[in-house]
Amino acid sequence: MFRNYLKIAFRNMLRHKVYSFINLFGLTVGLTCCLLITLYITNELSYDKYHAKADRIYRVTRNFVNQDGTVNLHLGNIAPPFGPLLKSYFPDLKEVVRVLQNNAVVAVNPERTFNEEDIFFAEPAFFKIFTVPLLSGNPAKALNEPNTVMMTEKMAEKYFPNQNPLGQVLRLDSQLNLKVTGVYESFPANSHFHPNFLVSFVTLEDSAVFGRENLRTNYGSNNFATYLLFPKDYPVKNVAAQFPAFLDKSMPAEGANAVKASSWTNLFLQKLTDIHLYSHLDTELEENGDINTVYLFTAIALFILLIACINFMNLSTARSSIRAKEIGVRKVMGATQPHLVVQFLAESMLFALLAVFIALLLTKLMLPVMNSFTGRELSFTIQNSWLLALAMVGLAALVGLLAGSYPALFLASFQPVKVLKGKLTTGKNSISLRKVLVILQFAISVVLLVSTAVVYKQLSYLRNRALGLDKDHIVNLNYNSTQLGPKYEAFRQELLSNAAIKEVGRSIGVPSDRLLNSMGNARLQTADSMAASPVAFQYLGIDQDFIQTYKIKLLAGRNFSETYPTDDSMAFLLNESGAKLLGLNNPQEGIGRSLEYGNRKGRLVGVLQDFHFESMHEKIKPIIFIIPDGRQYSDISVKLQGNNIAAGLAHLEKTWKKFLPENPFDYNFLDESFGRLYEAEQKQGLLFTIFAGIAILIACLGLFGLASFATEQRTKEIGIRKVLGASVSGIVTMLSKDFLKLVLLANIIAWPLAWYGMHRWLQDFAYRTTISWWIFGVAAVLALVVALLTVSSHATKAAVANPVKALKTE
């Protein structure tokens, strides 16, 4: 009997090819989108969970509080003294590890020299906290000695191809010789950081930048990611509650009134598995994801799947009456109601399962495209995703049951005598259900259309908003200042000797990067004394040429200058936000006042106009500008002539290789670096466009099918109207207006939902556009036009048909 049901199902599919295609295509596309997005969401939720002790690992974060109680900064990294002090103050802690991220030039020989960014200095406890499979070396000893390094197998092959890397030597920034003591597997993609090299932490004790005493006493250098391992089932909240007392005991009180540390800075605990989706602090080891994006994609997946399922159910119920005579004959021949219910359910589930099978194949084919959009390394095989595939089969079965249950129960209950006499009516409830489903479909489509428009409007706003600096034709290069040393001025003059190069400046960090983690407390002279309470500031180390290179506007005072020898150690610049934080309503009134920052004392010599150093996701922060001690810079910015970029780059490369022959010539254009800050939003915008298009396509296919069915049902009515003198336009209007009313109602329902969702999305930006009223109007018009084109094609065809053919059977 079941074989007979399948045979009938396939015959019906072949007999009604258009409806079969619409049903199968819509459900297949919906399931494919849902499956792709589910793979993405599953991957996002899996970050850092592969560590065996993930549920017991926490990161320590730090914030800084202004005098009015508002949070100035919240950093994902903390100062180096905290690690050992936490271990001592909280003896129940199993392990504490400090990690310092760095970039450097790594070399084996002149032929194998590369700029590397993911170099991490780590303490030996690293392997006791994190799960890191080793390929060679002893984790208990590999990072104990100074000047030792471990690397991933990819780096081992890169620097020592076809060799045993153990015992080999790497040279770091032409200064440190590091002995290779181990090789480990690369961290998986779903990790919040990916160290390619692990250098022994004790190496820092002899470094010029840090040093043993600095690591022990410097509470301003917040560059160290610090992780804690707790015992099983430990009350972690108890530790967090003791942080204020810990800070007051560990850190010296500052200011004339001996201000306690806990009054201006705090520590927090952050679960390891929460970092990727829930952490958007001022310093992160890598760019994290966002739980709001997960929610957004979840909603999109459900929306598209819902639209596809609605189509499936709509067309199934709409065409139920066409098979009424078949049911009547079957009943006369002895078929019982249960037999008919099973038959219809089997046909519906066959459609759904066939759609799942095709969707699984399409998912496999579309996965590389999805990976390019999301920047993830998603994979899908039955072996690693069998549970997901099983869930999709279950979902298809559920959809099949829901879609098939109504027509099955409805048709199976027909009285055969009435059916065979042609007295069957489909009933008002069926019509009402279909209307509700059409409204729901188009409401979802309009929400996606509005969301797409808002995303693109925000991206346009970000691209066109004034940054407060000149980002055009500026090239940034990273370097180690000790490698140039006293040769820098000769290097700069040789660059400027070429007319294609306009300006050259140095800094510690460049615009489009994150500001330094290092913090200092600033005090500005008031009317008669220095301010009692310290104010936490991030600083930017720049030279005398940086401001001119970026064309940053000076609001008051002067720039740093070589004509003032004390500028190296006693001069400060502030941005507008920094001046306001220190109580200056007028920038000019602070010029010449005494200013203290950390251990440096001097005077405020200038105030700069606010400019965007970081992404517009972040508010412009208060910044204090200094010439760094020993002129230890890390970046060079070169302004090129806009009409001669190629010549400028050629001269820059030639000069670079002359003065820094051991450093690879790697550069970035600043405007491209700023553009990369919004790649995630650009991809979101494109995905919104694609998914909105898919949603509308599926909805229109369903509307096409319903319009076709409605037209068929009213064929004789149309014929009579034409005989009585109705015009083609009148008939088209009659057939179209009912559907357009539904689409208009869908818009009214969708607008508040779309506004709320996009309002929440825009909150992620410190600087954002507005949600304009015209966006809703455009979305409404577009939805109505698409619906009209879809419905009117059938309506026009029916209206111009020969009425004789419609009435000849009467």
UniProtKB/TrEMBL annotation:
Keywords: Cell membrane, Membrane, Transmembrane, Transmembrane helix
Entry's Gene Ontology cellular component terms: plasma membrane
MacB-like periplasmic core domain: residues covered: 20-208
InterPro entries xref list: ABC3_permease_C, MacB_PCD, Macrolide_Exporter_MacB
Membrane topology value: Multi-pass membrane protein
Domain ABC3 transporter permease C-terminal: 299-416, 690-791
Main subcellular location of this protein, as a coarse class: membrane
A single GO molecular function term of this UniProt record: transmembrane transporter activity
Segments passing through the bilayer: 21-41, 294-315, 340-366, 386-414, 435-456, 686-711, 739-759, 771-791
Subcellular localization: Cell membrane
Name of the protein in its database record: ABC transporter permease
Protein source organism: Adhaeribacter aerolatus
